[in-house]
Each structure stands twice: as structure tokens, then as C-alpha cells.
Amino acid sequence: MLKTLVLLSSVAILSTWAVKCKYDNQDLDNNQIIVVQNAFRIKCLTEDNGSWKTEIVGCVAPDGTEIDAGQKKEVGDKVHECVKTEGGQVSLKESKGRLAACPGGQKNGEEWQEKSFKFRCGDGGVVKFIACVGQDGSVINSGETGKIGGFDVKCLQHANGTITMQAANDPKSYECKAKDGSMKKNGEEYIEGNFVRKCADYGQGKIIGCYAESVGNTIGVNQNVTAGDAPVVYSMCEQDGKQYKNGSTFISRESFRMKCVTFKNLTSTLEVVSCITPAGVEIAIGTQLEEGDRVFECTSGNVTLKSTPGQTGKCRGTYKVGEEWVEDSFKFACEPYGKIIIKSCVTKEGTEIPLGDAKRVPAGYAMECVIVNGHVALQTAKTFDCETGTGETKKFGETWNEGNFVRRCANHGVSEIIGCYVDNVGSVGLNQNLTSGDLLYLCIHQNDQFKFRTLRAQ
């Protein structure tokens, strides 16, 4: 007797009619492309055997610009990227373009000055620190050394965004310039008119006594020498052509208060006793003052006026307190005093995962944002709950029936098929058969595809 096998399954029945794709209640011809959600381009692909599929082949920017999957295009001041994952997920990602404006509204390439610092609006709307500016208008490029008020000053931006102008050399490395144009080494004594000077730190020629042709030796400060009938008297400290008495103070270079100090041997020197902020507020050595969005510190030792972000200061000179931004795979936040923290991780599909948490990404598996060896890392989450087709939650290792398949919650929150299931009959292992009555049940796993088939003999 002739026997015929009839295939009973949910696959489409072959016909001689032209094959069309079905998408959102639409019939699509082979190779037809439509735009969905005003953001994605869907293409219909059919086969001669009657099978068909639709796939995302590209994205559409808000202005209508078409972008192929895996490509990016710069549109105006924004960059739109059509991201396609290995799992086939496609997303439209938007970021700042090369010509984007900076947070303060400055255009690309525009330069401006804030107090003693100069900035430029760089590519992608990123604020770039470019130079320091002295009170006399002198400009020193970032990372370079120049002269301000006759002194070598280095202009630096540190990794935490702090900008400093500080003395570049050891104070003893400066030479003094005499009125006749000759240069004197540190510690060298020389005569100018009726005064004897000694080249001191920072190139300052300090008066240490007086000179008279009729007297063979240097006349000490506040000393009288009689040569014939002519007494010679010298008074105290001199700076920039002005003389100062012992204990008197004055402001130098609009940044420091100097004090005239004399000693028992009647020599004199100038000491820095405090710093002056850009607003003109005086702060003692070893203390600091918050002024506007900056904190100014008068450092001890080689006294400098140091500037760091204040409570409302910007992080990296760009981001305001409370402002958040994304770089690579991390979301950062600006906290008071220029402190930058990592709040969360961001996957390439755009899923945000708070630090210390884990989430399922569109590709179907789970990722976590954790601290590894002291550094924040975005990585796959090994153990994570799985979600069934009906929205139920299953724990790691738990199994359940879903349609005609038996699933198990595996690593990374991904459910894997471990067999097939037939109501009122039982389970069938992968690549195994089960006979019940006049029906043969097949559970097939081949080429990463899972199929369930029922055969009946007629």
C-alpha cells in the first residue's frame, strides 16, 4: 500500500502567486523599501521557494537624510549614525557634529577670554583652553612658558581641568639687568650710581648699601660714614624705582603684597606676605578663598596664586554643576568644585545602565555597569533573570515550556532552547523523535535553527 507523508507546520504554503512580504498589515514586493517610524528603512526580500523576510537596511535622519546601516553622516551641526549590532538590532544614534556650537553659544573656531584665560570653541562643541593672559596683555599659549612682568611664567591646564600660571624657573636662575644693560648673576654685587646692589631671587637687584668715591668700602644701609665733612645716609628697600621703609608693604604685579624687611647687619630684602585675587581681595599665604566660580589659593613655599574650580565652577572648563554628558560608553556628571563622577554606562545601542546595576539590552542579553579593579567597566552580566514570551521572570537555571519548545535561563539572561514539548505527550530532546499514536514528533536543531515538526502517515 502506498504511504504519503504530509508535513503539518506553521510555515507558509508554497504557491504559484508572486511572493510578497508582510509588514504591519502591508504587502511589499521583492526589494521594495519603505520608511517606518520616520527613522528606519525596511526592505522586502523574497525567495523562489516562497519564503520571505524583511530587514532593516538603513536609517533616516530627522531632516530626511538616508543613512545605510553601519554608516554615519554629518547633517548640519549633528552626526547621525545608523548602528547595527551583531544580533541584527539597528538604532539611530545622534551626536554633536564638527561644527556644533559650544555650551556658551560660541561658534566653531570662535575665541574668547574669561578673566585671565583664553578659550576656543573646538570641533564637536568642545571648549578648548588655549592660553593664559597677563595683566599687561601678555599671552602665553597653554603648555608653554612666557614672560609676564619680566618673569618666566608657565601656563598649564591639569588633568582635572585646573588652570595655573606659575613661576617656571628656580628663583635663583634669574639674572638681574643693570641700568647699563649688563646682566648680573644671582648673588653678584654691582654699583649703580651711589648705590651698591646685589642680584637676588627672581632677578631683583636689591640695594645693600651705598657707594661714595671718597669711601673705600660699601656703606651699610642706615649707617653713617664721615669722609671729610660729608655724611652718607641710605634708606631701606627699593623696588621699581620706589623706596620703602622697614615693615612697609606694597602690591606687586597686582597679584602679591610685598613687605620690606631689614636685618641687624642693615641689609634688606623683600618678602611676599599675601596674594591678591583678580577681584582685588587679599588672602594670606596658606589660605584659600572662593571667588565667583573659582577657588584661589595662596600657596606657601614658592608663593603662587593657584586657581581651581569653585563650588559652581565648570568641570573641564565646559560643563556646569549638575550637567551630564556621555563620552564613549560612560555618562559623566559635574559636581561642585569641578569634581567629575561616572553615573552610568551606556551601551552602543543607547541603553543606559546605572553604576552597580544590570539591564537587558535590545540584542536580548544582559549587561552590567560595575567597578572592576578600581575602574568602571561595562560588561556582560553572567547571571541575570530571563523573561518569557508572556512577560514572566525566570531565575538562572530555571526551565519552562513556551509554545512547542522547552527553554532554560542561561548565562547573560538569555533563554536557550533545550528541547521540544507536546501537550498531553511530554518532552522531546533536541534532534530526537517521539511517537504517540499515529503521529511522529520531531525536535530539530540544525545550523543554529530550532524546528518542531509533526508527521502523520496516510
Q: Could you explain how this protein is built, in words?
A:
Residues 1-18 form the signal peptide. A hairpin with a 5-residue loop joins strand 29 (256-262) and strand 30 (268-276). The protein is 0% helix and 53% strand. It has five domains: 21-96, no CATH class; 110-220, no CATH class; 237-308, no CATH class; 311-382, no CATH class; 387-457, no CATH class. It has a four-stranded antiparallel β-sheet with strand order 1-50-49-48, with no helix packed on it. Strands 4-5-6-7 form a four-stranded antiparallel β-sheet, with no helix packed on it. A four-stranded antiparallel β-sheet has the order 11-12-13-14, with no helix packed on it.
Shape: elongated
Please report which band the strand proportion falls in: under 5%, 5-15%, 15-25%, 25-35%, 35-45% or over 45%: over 45%
The overall pLDDT, averaged over residues, is 81
Class per helix and strand makeup:
mainly beta
Number of helices: 0
Uncertain runs: 1-16, 230-234
Largest sheet properties: 4 strands, antiparallel
Helical percentage: under 10%
Distance between the termini: 10 Å
Q: What is the gyration radius calculated from CA atoms?
A: 40 Å
The strand count comes to: 50
Domain count, please report it: 5
The main sheet orders its strands as: 1-50-49-48
